[in-house]
Amino acid sequence: MWKKSKVTDQTAAGQKVNAPERGQWNDKGIRKKSKVPGVMITQFEAELPEGMTTPDFSRKPIAITIQEGKSTAFKAIVVGNPKPTITWTRTNGEIVFHPDTCRQNYSEASHEHTLEFPKVAPEDADTYKCYATNDYGRAVCTAVLNVIEVGFSKAKELQKTYGDDLPDFLRKKLKKCAPKVGAQVQNEPTPEEKVWEILMNAEKKDYERICAEYGITNFRGMLKKLKQMKQEQDVDTAEFVSHIDTLKHIEEDDDEASINLDLELKELNSKIFLYKDGEMVALTKEECDEMKHSLKQVGKKHDSVLYSMDVQGGTVFTADFKVPDVDFAIKLQEVKADERQDALFVCVLTAPLNEIKWFGKNALLSNGEKFEISISEDKLIHKLIVRDCLPLDAGIYAAVAGIKSCNAWLVVEADKEASSKGKKAARKNTIAGLGDDEYLLRTAKEQQEKYQKEMEERLEIAKKAQSERDAAEEATRLEAQAAKKRSAETKAAANAAAKAKKAEEGVDESASFQVGAHVDVEELSEGNEEAGQNSLFMETVEVDKVTSGDSPPRQDKVKGNDHGEETAVKQKGERCGTKEKRPKVKTVDAEDAAVGNDLGEKTAKQKSEKLGKKEIAPKVKFPDEEDPAVGNHHGEETAEQSSEKSGTKENCPKEKIGDVTDTHVESDKGDKEEEEEEVQPPAGKRVRIRQGPLIEETIIDPGVHFLIGLSDCKAIIGEEAELVCKLSSEDCEGIWYKDGGEIKSNEGMTIIKEGSYHKLKLHKVPEEFAGKYKFEADGRKTEALVVVEDPPRFDPEELKTFITPFTVKKGHKATFKISYMGREPVKVQWFLEGEELSDEANIKLETSDGYTRLLLIKLQRKDSGEVKLKLKNEFGIAEALTELIVLDKPTPPMGPVEIVEASSSAIEIKWRPPKDCGGCKIGNYILERQQVGRNTWKKVGLIGPLAKYRDLDVDHGRRYCYRIRVETEMGTSELMETEDIQAGTKAYPGPPSTPKVVSAFKDCINLSWSAPANTGGTNILGYNLEKRKKGSNLWGQVNSPEEMIRAKGFAVKDVVEGMEYEFRVAAINNSGAGEFSTPSEFVFARDPKKPPGKAIDFKVTDSSYTSLCLSWIKPKEIKGVEDEAKGYFVEIRPAENTEWNRCNSNLVTTNFFTVKNMKSMAMYWVRVIAVNDGGEGEPQELNNYILAMPPPVRPRFTDTKIKSFMVVQAGNSARLTMNFEASPWPEVKWLKDDVPVTKTVTISNAEGTSQLLIPSAERSDSGVYTIVVKNIVGQETFSIEIRVTDEPKPPGPVEMEENVPGTVTISWAPSPDEKRDDRLHYMVMKRDSSKRTWNTVADHIFNNKFTACNIMPGREYRFRVYAKNDMGSSKPTESQKWLLPIKKEKFTVNMPRSKSCNLQCPPKFLVPLKMHIAPQGYECYMSCALKGDPTPHVTWLRDNISLNTNTNYYISNTCGVCSLLILRVGSKDTGEYKVVAENPMGRAECSTKLTVRGKYLPEDISTGFGCIEENN
Fold this sequence. Notes:
Helices cover 11% and strands 39% of the residues. It is mainly beta. Strands 1, 2, 3, 4, 6, 8, 11 and 12 form an 8-stranded mixed sheet that branches.
């Protein structure tokens, strides 16, 4: 169980600390937080002396949870100057330091302070504090120690749960579970209790396995006792549990084992306990279901343990979890199979296992058409056959045994011939992956023997332990038996005295024979089996003889001892071979049934067999059995079994007895003789009591059986094969069969017996030997299948000759031939360097029965390579490899030539060997030389096999050229000619490295340098060194011109103290001195300096998310202690790292620096180090860590003009962009109507900006959108209303009526969009017959009625109603004509007759178009007047594109006045507008330009319009 402690320290991690602000003084000092969470520091002084620090933890102790009895320790590392002292305390009580319980240590190597607990006890659980104290402060931190107590008391837990109100039924259970005084209490269940717990919840199919494992031989008795125990458990469980669902026993996975069950409890508050081998384990309660509990053991380490679950003290479920101790002796191997071929995977285990799990490509495999899983008889060899392999079957296959696994690849080679022809490959009957079966069998035998040996050792250990337990139990039983015997004798004497007194009073006891019940020995035996409480075996009752007569009733009971013993009632019957039937024996009061002992006795019938009697023991029945008999632990034979052995033919008469409860028999394991006692009852009858000998445990011999069975064997024709099996006995003989017929040793096969091994050897196996073989011994048999195969193979002698490399000269031929064996048809394939060969001009292939030949003609050097012969038939594949080497002349040497030396006295060159030496070793290189300017070549001759040459016969300044050839036994190669090489060229060396100042003193400066990379082709002879004073332009040589410096360093002594110098150096070779190096740094001629001190006033001047600006003051110079600083290094350290990183590689001479490339919002520690010639000073750190962020700024929106209202047309995208500034980076949220926006809205946040995007707006997206920008300083919000709408639909039909003279009331049906758009309104326009134009009479009407005034009689009126919203207007709904008739007098007009005239004319513009400049979003109206007869056709164009069909423009032509109306001008409307009028008489044009305000106005504005007329 858990024993936790409370955390009482206020400075623990995650808790608030009520401490003063940083820098605030209180009575105890300045309290401040450490950079390590959970550590509180108290500073004793307001200002610390320079170099002094308060204590702090660089590593604090952590909380620990550990099991009782284990060892653990708290560890801490502290820093501070002066060095702090460490003390430990605990919240409850004081720490008692003792080497065995608790000790405090310190490690000099790791600087760790530890508080160790060698053996944790439950009372150690507490909250511990660690104090680090020095003269200037104190640091404190806490750590909790939780202890898990080993063992668990169910009674204690129940009493803790219920307190004093413990229910009665639980009190009984607690009394039942309470240990006896003096008895030893064991947490772990005994083996006998454990096996019953396992059987209680095991499946029936596992009973036999469990009994065999735990040595149970009385199977029938086990079943009856198990039935009774289950009934008792059901009664206990029913008090708390309604029912149990989904009960799943141990389920194992690769790394997990689990037990699952669902309980429906009657009381929700019922306690549930889980145990592992009697110890309670942690219980997890899943949140998904209050009534579901689960116990899981996760991890790769599995235990063989017994798990059980109790509810309120009653056992509900028990499971035995045992992971098989097995591994793979032979693991799976990779298998390569051809398409449509079978593949075989084989593995061998170290211990027998009924089955293992096979997985193919992570899927569990099972027996079927595709996969065949087989197991050998000894259960060690497991096989998986993949039938009809296809390319899709390729992958990883795995075998899992317990918690061990192995895997291997299956590679399927596609049949290229079939796929190229577009056909499916033919099914193959061969199996890929067949290995050495003998090796598998041999390995299996070794593992079987090893396993048997281990089992025997375990059995010996178990027997030894059992014998020790039996001895202890026997000692206890004997002690209890002696005490009981004394008690029985005392009671018998008292009963005899009482009966004698009653007999004197003349009590008639004859009626006692009339009451009773039959006691059947057989039924009693069965009853005892059912009633056994602590034993696995039956007890027996032996009835010797009962004399007839009267007997008074007896009230005393015969009881067994505390260890399961019973007293068998022996009824004596008539002996001496009488054949008369005895009367039925009855008892009046048999209140207690006899209780059996632990050692077992034989029944009355067994006794009759030994005595040779022909009588049958009477059946004895007891009417009242309050205490059922208890069986023993060692097994007994029943009375029926004894009768069968005796062969008695006489039935004993049934007799009546008054009371036999005083008659008892006690068994003693050490007694070998029968003892008789006679008890004289008052009626004068004698009852003999017999104590029989103990019967030893009977072990059932399973007989001869197979330890290793036969395994299937695949034999090759002409070779040997062997079948092997192993019996459990060496003395048993057996018979071999083939296909049902018995076989004997002959010329082809031999039968061998070696101890318990039986072998059948097959010599030079022919095809006739294929079949099913069987070995039978003592009624047991094992079978195996022998498959005879004839795969292709080679003769070993010919194969040895074939694989020898074949060497041939260029242009010659090569022949490869070999014979083979194997069942036809055999496919023969020849390969050269992996490429298959076929009959060609230079290649000849010959194949006949058992013979193949390859002939290669006119071979070239390129034909060299590996030659492979591949034979294939239905049984397998055979391959033979050899090497073909074609000899030829070598190729020329490879250039370019490298000049090693080109001096006045020698030329040394080297080159690379030829790319191909022709298959032979290089014998020599042949060299020729020519002096440039001459025509002859001088033969140098053979120079050996090394690819280099040194020519000493050269003249200074001459140039030479060389020819090089390669010579082998096959000939000489072509030549390689070098470039011209000059002897003694003046090649000066390059500059050496910059001189480095090793050390500087007032009278000497030590320098060093490195040799130049370019030596000029010759060796470096020495160096010249020069110096120069600071401020001077003159260089002076340090060494004398006659004496060069041989070494790569020099001590310059010609210096003046206090002066500053720089140096340079030049290298010298045979040609002379080369270039000087770059000058060194200036160095003072003075003694070494002291390192500088710490920088002063180190602080942060500015910061951002990626950079940090620092500044400081130059450290003070203290003569003789700290010298002046020459420069500075700045270092940073991320909070999660322990290493400092230098920000500048070169010294910073200024007193400020900017650190860049920092991680945003990361935590850094920063320090600066002053440096001079004396080295680095002590670093100066900032007091606190720095966050990579700008100075805090409250969020603020930077846009000066932000729209608060936005109209979006449905279907279009809506985009809102908000710019802001804030530091640190704020959290940005978008809300719609005070609710977070949905997932359909896209939010994009970047530095200083946030964008909301609605890809396709719908009316439901309308609302008030609010952006909330919040950081640690504050927050800012802004709201924008977005209205998503569309062009409204026109209103319904228009009706008119006259309510008042001179007016007309117009009404219309509402637009369908009125309900969806609260900003929709209406506009009414009017036209009368006198004006012919439409005029707006009302706008922004939010109802469906309007009354028009000034309606004149006699005029026709028409009305149009428009629906309008933020997007524009709908199409109009027009009314009918409205006319008020007028009464007029008749008026006659006499019109003069007019003369006809021709008025036809071409179009002509009377009023041209004018130029327009319109503001964006406003209306624009263009008009012009024209004439023409017939009436011309008018076309409006913008940028030469017709607008007559564009619905965005309203075009009208009334009585020669052409107009164009643009409701809302946009930037897209900018351009040139043109009116074209046409009729049969001609054509006219008029144009203008429209400019939207804010756009660029062209220079030719004045000429932006004009008219053109064309006449036909």
